[in-house]
Design brief:
The structure holds 2 protein chains of 2 kinds. By secondary structure, chain A is of the alpha+beta class. Chain A has 2 domains: about 40 residues, no CATH class; about 350 residues, YVTN repeat-like/Quinoprotein amine dehydrogenase (Methylamine Dehydrogenase, Chain H), CATH 2.130.10. Chain A is about 15% helix and about 30% strand. In chain A, the strands form 7 sheets. A 5-stranded antiparallel β-sheet of chain A has the order 6-7-8-10-9. Chain A is elongated, with a radius of gyration of 45 Å. The N and C termini of chain A lie far apart (about 125 Å). In chain B, a hairpin with a 4-residue loop joins strand 24 and strand 25. Chain B starts with about 30 loop residues before the first helix and ends in a 5-residue tail after the last strand. By secondary structure, chain B is mostly beta strands. Chain B folds into 2 domains: about 80 residues, no CATH class; about 325 residues, YVTN repeat-like/Quinoprotein amine dehydrogenase (Methylamine Dehydrogenase, Chain H, 7 Propeller), CATH 2.130.10.10. Chain B is globular, with a radius of gyration of 23 Å. Chain B contains 4 helices and 33 strands. Classes of the chains: A alpha+beta, B mainly beta. At the A-B interface, loops of A face loops of B. Chain B: It comes from Prunus yedoensis var. nudiflora. Chain B: Required for maturation of ribosomal RNAs and formation of the large ribosomal subunit. Chain B: This is Ribosome biogenesis protein WDR12 homolog. Chain B: It is found in: Nucleus, Nucleolus; Nucleus, Nucleoplasm.
């Protein structure tokens, strides 16, 4: 045992009366420092020159931070912070009476109910089945404790709560705003007239410029002329070969109908119009003598023959002609002979010869005929692939030729200079139509798609619409109303509002208006051709069921 | 109860009319004395009646009518009894060789038809053809009797798709077994496209014609001496082979304003010409000055037009839709039709007011039906479904017979539809 020494506090707690040194305060301590004033001057100059910008006082933010809702909802204030923030857990349901260890008897499910839970799907079963215990002691341990702990850990690890950014946008507002259909009247709606008489599919129709008559050509080898308002067949020719295309001369001074059948293009006198028209037509449709062969290449490929039986001119081509288009003045017409796929398939031998020939004297697929001089001109454009259709520009000297994928625009005055090349990205072009202004083109394709080209905009389509289930056979613009139509093998014709504005900044407005039904499918073909009435908002459709229908507004 | 003037001496029993069968409810009261009358004599004929309440025909049970019109059942109703307009007899159709395109029954002695074989025909009665008007090279599109009330010699005009109109004279009284073929005494040339419609002035001195060349031409009908001089020498050469009796006429004046085919013209008064066109408008022209004083825009291409009804001022027109519309041009500043009848299912090709009645008009349509309309109800009074193909023309004859021609080359007559 030892005695504890008393604690001696050696430290002097109160200040000493005298400092350790008695030396006076040095002068230095009262004189401003030179080096510091240099530094200050430097900073001052820098501030004046604007090299240093003083920090703005952050009074507002400090104030905001100083007061914050302690008891407020966490979820709202957390949104402002850009750092990782606390996401509150969803509030669990508060326990009720049934979760008590000794609930009232009405909460306890009967045995039948428990059995019925077993029949339910696992997701639908109630998570908690109330049980009754007489005392707290008899409550067993929670059987899912370990499992739930594990699942919670898995949740935290694998799928932590994430704040989902949900856009609060009305889906209706995302739809393009189209004008009401009723404001875009008139447009063809219902079929009132049918033109019956053909014995086979009607392949092509054409409306006379005044809108009094239409002509139709059919696979049964006849061409018929109908009165529009009565549906009466006024005239018919038996040509004997399936008619591919009919086209009425746009000039009201001539009553001439161009018909393509097989290798021939027939120019027929329709017999409409007054005496003067008849006289000029007859003069035009007489060939003085069969053209001698000495005129060179042109005569060898196309010959102008007088057809006394049909009272017209027969233009004999070397291959089958698919389409005939008139120039707006009615003096020129263009014919298209697509490359002979027949040759390719049947006579492979000839095929080679044919292409050999083609390489030597150019691709002769398109001819332009001048009616008044009975002269045929070959257009030797370099098309990569067979030509499908050709159209004249409605106002200028342009000429559109479409191959299966590309449409080329040539200027006929400048010796066939390529003006534009339109790439459709379609698999197979079947038909094209030019807007009466000449700046817009619609293209129908074999896979049921329609392309709208704005010539001023680009060489890519302004709009591509997937419309029909089957091939589009023809497309057509109205001459005066802002309407266009497509017809397809799925037995429907679609009518659109296609408004073109003179303001170059405004894009064309395309509104689907109506689906016209009524034709029935024959041999897998539906509606073969559609043409608008030149003055009324009416649409003529030619069906493979040998009927021509008129849809009126 | 206010019975009409005719029903004061009615000796008949009421029954449900056989035609569009307005189901008359048993709670419709009628005087007990009438029922007693009907039982007295079995020889009295059955007469169908129609009932008017507030100027509207009752086409349903009285209860439904009151509910539909919102009339209180407490008020005293004035029911007017009128004889129902029901066709009694369908006569034998008059057969033609081709489509019947036009019919005119304005003369009580005969009626005139135009046909697609280029001939006009004059009929005394159903199936009795007295004259054949021969000369047009293309279908006749319209016919008009110029002086229906005139003496034995009658003048008629026909318009054709061969761009001419022809005037014909024949004696309406002569009867013979075989139809007499006659040729025109005057050929009117001047239209540049097919003529669609012809109408005569009430005095019979002039006719007007509408054509596909968008013009309406006015022609003189009688003064052959002066007309012969005006024919130019060039014209004469071209038609030198024509008979001497045939003279040629030229248009007196031309009304220009329509932009498309003038499909129908009417000349109801001395000064006024009405025309309907495919350019969606109806115009009223002053025949003297050649200016249009009225322009009703209706939105559809029009095929037919007629003037009649209340004080002969209402304009009925039908066109490229199944709706027959009636305008009242006396109402200023409106182009909305006052009545619309829409029971047809295809284009309306002809419409014709009854001459005497204010309320009745008939219409023909491409659906082959001819309907009689009463302005006082929206349903047709009766439907004549005699044509197997399109009905192209219709007219009244002798005030109680409906004539209609169609694309089945028949002219159907339904008589006994007494309107008054």
């Amino acid at each position: 045992m030892f005695e504890v020494q008393p604690y001696v506090d050696w430290f002097k707690w109160d200040d000493s009366k005298h400092p350790l040194s008695n030396a006076p305060e040095p002068k230095r301590r009262f004189i401003p420092s030179k080096s510091e004033s240099k530094l200050v001057n430097k900073i001052k100059l820098a501030i004046r020159k604007g090299l240093i910008k003083p920090k703005k006082p952050k009074e507002e933010e400090e104030e905001e931070e100083s007061v914050y809702p302690l008891w407020g909802d966490d979820s709202n204030s957390a949104g402002k912070n850009d750092h990782l923030s606390y996401i509150p857990a969803p509030k669990p349901k508060l326990p009720g009476h049934e979760e008590s260890f000794n609930p009232s008897l009405e909460y306890i499910p009967t045995q039948e109910e428990i059995n019925s839970y077993q029949l339910m799907y696992e997701e639908d079963r109630p998570k908690f089945i109330p049980k009754r215990f007489t005392s707290m002691r008899s409550i067993p341990a929670y059987e899912n404790a370990v499992k739930e702990c594990f699942e919670r850990c898995l949740d935290l690890y694998l799928c932590p709560r994430v704040r989902k950014k949900r856009l609060n946008i009305d889906p209706e507002s995302l739809k393009p705003k189209l004008p009401n259909r009723n404001d875009l009247k008139p447009y063809p709606v219902s079929c009132y007239l049918e033109y019956r008489g053909h014995g086979d599919a009607v392949t092509s129709i054409s409306v006379e410029a005044s809108g009094q008559w239409i002509a139709s050509g059919s696979l049964d080898g006849t061409v018929r002329i109908w009165g529009v308002e009565t549906g009466r067949c006024l005239k018919h020719w038996k040509i004997g070969e399936a008619v591919k295309y009919v086209s009425w001369n746009p000039n009201p001074e001539h009553s001439i109908l161009a018909v393509s059948t097989g290798q021939d293009v027939l120019l027929l006198n329709t017999g409409r119009g007054n005496e003067e028209v008849q006289k000029s037509t007859k003069e035009l449709l007489s060939v003085e003598m069969p053209m001698p062969d000495d005129s060179g290449k042109t005569a060898s490929s196309v010959s102008w023959l007088q057809d006394d039986q049909l009272e017209g001119i027969r233009l004999r081509h070397s291959k089958t002609v698919t389409s005939v288009e008139w120039h707006r003045k009615g003096d020129y017409l263009s014919t298209v002979m697509p490359a002979d796929i027949l040759f390719a398939h049947i006579y492979t031998y000839f095929y080679i010869i044919y292409y050999f020939k083609h390489d030597t004297d150019g691709f002769r697929a398109i001819f332009i005929h001048k009616l008044s001089k009975k002269f045929t001109q070959t257009l030797s454009f370099k098309l990569q692939g067979p030509a499908v259709t050709s159209v004249f520009h409605p106002t200028r000297s342009f000429f559109f030729i479409s191959t299966k994928k590309i449409i080329r625009v040539y200027d006929l005055v400048k010796e066939g200079k390529l003006v534009k090349k339109l790439e459709t990205a379609l698999r197979e072009i079947s038909s094209i139509a030019v807007h009466p202004s000449g700046d817009h083109i619609i293209v129908g394709s074999g896979e049921g798609k329609l392309c709208w080209f704005d010539m001023d905009l680009s060489s890519k389509p302004y709009k591509t619409l997937k419309l029909h289930q089957k091939d589009i056979n023809n497309v057509s613009f109205h001459r005066s109303y802002p309407l266009f139509a497509t017809c397809s093998d799925d037995c429907t014709a679609y009518v659109f509002h296609g408004m073109v504005y003179s303001d170059l900044n405004q894009n064309p407005l395309i509104v689907p208006l109506e689906i016209l039904r009524g034709h029935s499918s024959t041999n897998g073909r539906g509606v073969m051709d559609c043409k608008f009435h030149p003055r009324q908002p009416w649409l003529f459709t030619a069906g493979a069921d040998s009927v021509v229908r008129l849809y009126c507004h | 109860m206010c019975a009409s003037s005719r029903s004061s001496n009615v000796l008949s029993k009421f029954q449900i009319p056989p035609f569009p069968s307005p189901p008359i409810s048993p709670d419709l009261a009628y005087p007990a004395s009438l029922t007693i009358l009907s039982k007295q004599n079995p020889d009295w004929e059955v007469e169908p009646f129609d009932f008017l309440i507030n100027g509207e025909l009752v086409r349903m049970s009285l209860e439904n009518f009151l509910l539909a019109k919102g009339i209180s059942a407490e008020t005293i109703l004035e029911i007017e009894y009128i004889r129902a307009v029901v066709p009694r007899k369908e006569e034998e159709p008059s057969l033609h060789d081709d489509w019947v395109s036009a019919v005119d029954g304005s003369s009580p002695r005969f009626f005139l038809t135009g046909c697609y074989d280029g001939l006009g025909r004059v009929w005394k009665a159903a199936g009795v053809c007295t004259h054949i008007l021969e000369g047009h090279s293309e279908p006749v599109s319209s016919v008009s009797i110029i002086n229906p009330e005139g003496a034995d010699s009658v003048t008629v005009a026909t318009a054709s798709k061969d761009r001419t109109l022809r005037l014909w004279k024949f004696n309406a009284e002569d009867t013979r077994r075989n139809p007499l073929k006659i040729s025109a005494f005057k050929i009117l040339r001047g239209h540049r496209a097919s003529v669609q419609s012809v109408a005569a002035q009430t005095s019979g001195n002039m006719i007007c014609s509408g054509s596909w060349d968008c013009t309406i031409n006015l022609w003189q009908t009688n003064d052959p001496v002066s007309e012969g001089d005006t024919v130019s020498t060039k014209k004469r050469k071209t038609t030198g082979h024509a008979k001497e009796s045939q003279s040629e006429g030229e248009a007196v004046s031309s009304l220009v304003g329509h932009t498309q085919c003038v499909s129908s013209v009417k000349w109801p008064e001395r000064e006024t010409i009405y025309s309907a066109s495919w350019d969606h408008s109806i115009r009223r022209w002053n025949a003297e000055t050649g200016k249009d004083s009225l322009n009703i825009f209706c939105g559809k291409a029009l095929n037919c037009l007629d003037i009649g009804g209340e004080s002969s001022a209402l304009v009925a027109a039908g066109g490229s839709d199944p709706i027959l519309k009636i305008w009242d041009p006396r109402k200023p500043g409106t182009s909305a039709p006052v009545y619309q009848f829409s029971s047809h299912t295809s284009w309306v090709t002809a419409c014709k007011w009854h001459e005497k009645s204010w309320f009745h008009l008939i219409s023909a349509s491409h659906d082959g039906k001819v309907m009689l309309w009463d302005l006082r109800t929206a349903w047709p009074l009766f439907v004549i479904d005699a044509h197997k193909d399109k009905a192209l023309c219709a007219d009244w004859w002798r005030g109680d017979t409906v004539l209609s021609g169609g694309a089945d080359s028949k002219l159907c007559m339904t008589s006994g539809a007494s309107v008054l």
